[in-house]
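Reading a protein record of the kind used here takes only a little practice. The record below shows the convention in full.

——
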Amino acid sequence: MHHNQNISFLSNKSLFLKDLCGTLFFMEIAIFAQHATKIYGKVKAVDDLSFTVQRGEMVGLLGPNGAGKTTVIHMLLGLLAPTSGNIRVLGLSPLKDRPLLAQKINFSSAYVQLPSNLKIIENMKIFAGLYGISRPLEKIKFLLNLFNMDHLAKRLTGALSAGEKTRLNLCKALLNDPEVLLLDEPTASLDPEMALNVRNVLQKIQKERHLSVIYTSHNMVEVQEMCDRVLFLNHGREVLQGKPHEILKELQYKTLDEVFIAVARRKEGAT
């Protein structure tokens, strides 16, 4: 009996240590993907992808159109199930824990349209209600002002310019004070001055709130300025990842644009 009790104790201790290690791991890691694969028919949109994003880190998710970036984002949001592999966001499963995770994550894309027949303020109130925001009007006013949108609050969303819609999506994405923010082309359609303002706002918020961010863009100058690390994809696979300045030094290139082109060509078999 005593021997069995020892076995039980050791087993429980092992489980406790395993849970503790898992908890400590996800205190440091915001996003964890291990051998993530997504297959549509015969096409591998994402192919055996493994990466992490640390708490408070901004990582550029880069690659040509069709590289798999959007599929990765949709899996992180729980909109798509991986065919195989493991994905965790803040230690949670994007699929199984989606209602809980929805309070901790948000997404902004220049290509997602909010209901066009509603005024800006109406759209923001609806999302504030979905997120359970306390004192929503105060929060909405703050965010609209932050992105120079306060004077447009009563304008129909459908009447906005492309750049204004981009900024409105950013306002929506910050409503619930997310811990993880997924940004898809956050400065698309913005003029240079407004793009600079938006980048400054995002950097300030990210540092103040210790946000974990995935940042997609085709503007490599912007990526190099914003991101701690970059992950290049092509045909769903990781081609290269690291800190921008270290990649440039290792490959002896001057810009990330050169790296982007070289990585894409190498993947296609060019010398």
Remarks:
- The beta strands are 29-40, 43-54, 58-62, 84-89, 105-109, 180-184, 212-216, 229-234, 237-242.
- The domain at 55-82+96-266 is CATH 3.40.50.300 (Rossmann fold).
- The longest strand covers residues 29-40.
- The radius of gyration is 21 Å.
